[in-house]
Amino acid sequence: MNFLDFDHSFGEAKFIIIPSKIGGTSVGSKGAEEAPDHIIKASWQIEDWDTELKFDFTESKFHTFKPVRNLEELYEASLFVLKHNKIPVVIGGEHFISHVVLRAMKEVLGEVSVIFFDAHADMFDEFNGNKFSHACALFLSLPYIKDFVSIGVRNVAKREVDIINNLGLKDKFLFFEDFVYVDRKEGCVKMNLDLLDQKIESLKGAFIYLSFDYDFIDPGYLPSLSTPEPPGFSFVQTLFIIRRIIEHFGQKIRGFDFVEFCPQGIFASDVSAAKIIAKSLSYLAYTYIKDEK
Ligand SMILES: [Mn+2]
Fold first, then answer.
1. What are the pLDDT digits (tens) for 59-91?
2. Which residues, other chains included, contact 160 with Cβ-Cβ below 8 Å and sequence gap of 6+?
3. What is the Å distance from ligand 1's center to 184 Cα?
4. CA of 123 to the centre of ligand 1 (A)
5. Run of H or E including 90
6. Cα gap 281→285, rounded to integer Å
7. How far is the CA of 156 from the centre of ligand 1 (A)?
8. Which CATH number fits the domain that encloses residue 43?
């Protein structure tokens, strides 16, 4: 099964989809390891013309690997993709997989920083006795990264806040409520984009990795989640933020993961998850086209 139903060869593809069937630690809904099949099937609905940017975003070409089933396989696959100067796009599974992709990136590229899109801080040093839990995703990544920004956190434990403060990482988080607010005069929902820009402009590091936890999005828009956290970002806000970040960093972006999607038999959710990936890759593909012109 191929993402977008395209069967470009590895050699000609820029984006290499790595389906991740790695999960099993969720304390919410279980089944994130089933996500790749659902998301890939739903991606067949998505056509190649980007109606927002007005270009064929598949010009950069996509190749889909066979699914990986453990961290070692994911690490090897990521390493292989990066050594061939291509972009790994990990789809599905739980969030604790990010650190092995980052380990591969550090090895091949040297210096990598991450932007996490997540309703949770994922800063537990261990969770229910497990160091490799979805709740430890960011903490596990720290040894491999130069810097990070985490956007959208709105459910965090006091213990995580203590860990964050002890490590001096408080400024790396843009909490949901500091970012999205209701305008008191107009009553409408607004985003503090100055704060977002400050965070992304302060990010150090030669290369950038985007780690997208689907619970960033409001569960009303995308209910098939391991750990839904209302309220969250609308679909339009989510795409706007992703575009702004990708336009800022351009080709410094060298990898993605899209995790914590938990299939619930809702086809609209599957398509929404696939669309987030397609649009993200389209935004990045567009920066290549623009540079060529
Ligand atoms: Mn999360």
1. 889 999 999 999 999 999 999 999 999 999 999
2. 121, 123, 124
3. 29
4. 11
5. strand 87-91
6. 6
7. 10
8. 3.40.800.10
